[in-house]
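Subject: Interface between my chains keeps coming out wrong

I've been trying for a while to get a sensible model of this assembly. When I model each chain on its own everything looks fine, but I need the whole thing in one frame so I can look at the contacts. Pasting all components below, labels as-is. Any help appreciated, I'm running out of ideas.
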Amino acid sequence: GENVEQHPSTLSVQEGDSAVIKCTYSDSASNYFPWYKQELGKGPQLIIDIRSNVGEKKDQRIAVTLNKTAKHFSLHITETQPEDSAVYFCAARAEGFKTIFGAGTRLFVKA
Amino acid sequence: NAGVTQTPKFQVLKTGQSMTLQCAQDMNHNSMYWYRQDPGMGLRLIYYSASEGTTDKGEVPNGYNVSRLNKREFSLRLESAAPSQTSVYFCASSEGRAWNQPQHFGDGTRLSIL
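Reply #2:
Try treating it as a single job with all components included. I did that and got this:
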């Protein structure tokens, strides 16, 4: 079945450094790739998304890249801050209502 | 603007008991979803409702039922709770029927079954 693999499962960086989280998807029909941030005790919140007709998208310190040929997409956070500490989920969605989520990356930003 | 509201926030049940998890959204969204989140497994879709009056199974529907009560409300029912259903349950909604619309999540219901 469809699958999204996410790496690493845990990531620790110093404040001010960059963080990169990578995902690979299996369903070649996937066309929509959202990223969610989940803080302790809260639900996932959308932070950025990308559609298959776009290779890269930026929003301030956050960027996402997509390589459809390799079925890879990545989240890049620059100038990390302690408030970036959270669990991040990638996801992939083909046409229809089924979104497949990665297992999550727990990001620690050390002050 | 509350977004997606889930009740209760916490619940402890005994094996075999039944309960209904409630979800309401105030964004006039057409589509609603129920997920469960287990450690190391991300979110898995239980059921979804593409629009008012319709419901469909997701990846892990066994042991659950849903009701789309109206456009705002989508409930999840456990008829006979089992320990394997201990999880955090999230409700989400999205704007339309288009597949490339972001989902908005509630803050979850933490359910323990003894």
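Reply #3:
Confirming on my end. The interface with chain A takes residues 4, 31, 33, 40-45, 48, 50, 56, 58-59, 90, 92, 99-100, 102-108 of chain B (CB under 8 Å).
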